[in-house]
Amino acid sequence: RTVEPLEYYRRFLKENCRPDGRELGEFRTTTVNIGKCLCSITTADGSALVKLGNTTVICGVKAELAAPAVDSANKGYIVPNVELPSLCAERFRSGPPGEEAQAASQFIADVIENSQMIVKEDLCIANGKLAWVLYCDIICLDYDGNLLDASVFALLAALKNVQLPLVTINEETGLSEVNLKQKNPLVIRKHPVATSFAIFDDTLLIVDPTAEEEDLATGTVTIVTDEEGRLCSVHKPGGSPLTGAKLQDCITRAITRHKEVKKLIDKVIKSITPK
Predict the structure, then answer these.
(1) What phi, psi does 204 have (nearest 5°)?
(2) Which residue of 18, 90, 104, 189 sits 20 to 30 Å from the alpha carbon of 123, by its own alpha carbon?
(3) Residue 12, CB half-sphere, CA atoms under 13 Å: how many?
(4) pLDDT at 9
């Protein structure tokens, strides 16, 4: 494994399994924890922690009030940011965001936009005057591959946990008034779920790659679908090309994975909802 890691992996892949005992199309154990039980970010308006095997990602959503942009007077803002601190893996360094963190942040921004999970018009309070800004901070606590799947899942779970207070504008003073006693859940219009694959030797696809598998792979691809089976995004940063048939296989598996994740998130939300 240390001297010839690729040959070591190939021996397993020939038998349609992986060194950790999983089949090629099998995900690692997935868990999600939603809400204020996450003592580290109790100041957030919505929070979630997702574990995908050893990969652990936390997402906190903070809502603030701001004036809409002049050219988008009826829209609010969503600002995602992915952090890969040095504590999550040896490969990351302290300091400004590296290339991988920036690429992940852009990917999350694209997923939000393409899936229309939140329509920015829903975040507007008073046209041209006041709107919500949602700061979505996604921090990796432990990195063992497949950051994108865990990040999208954590973002969705945290957004479903957000409760926004009622805000009105006093017509006499022109100032905003916040009613913290009357809160409403954020309107989530679509539920995007990401499914990532590593490509081995240009032909073989394995789902939910670990960090080691990502390093040995000849490419990766991430498929994002919503609950209607609609394709929201295909993210393929170079590497081995995929045939149309292989890509279709990935999409089919992603649709199945979506159902699994949606079922898990609904179950957790039901368990924390007051009777």
Answers:
(1) -85, 130
(2) 104
(3) 16
(4) 87
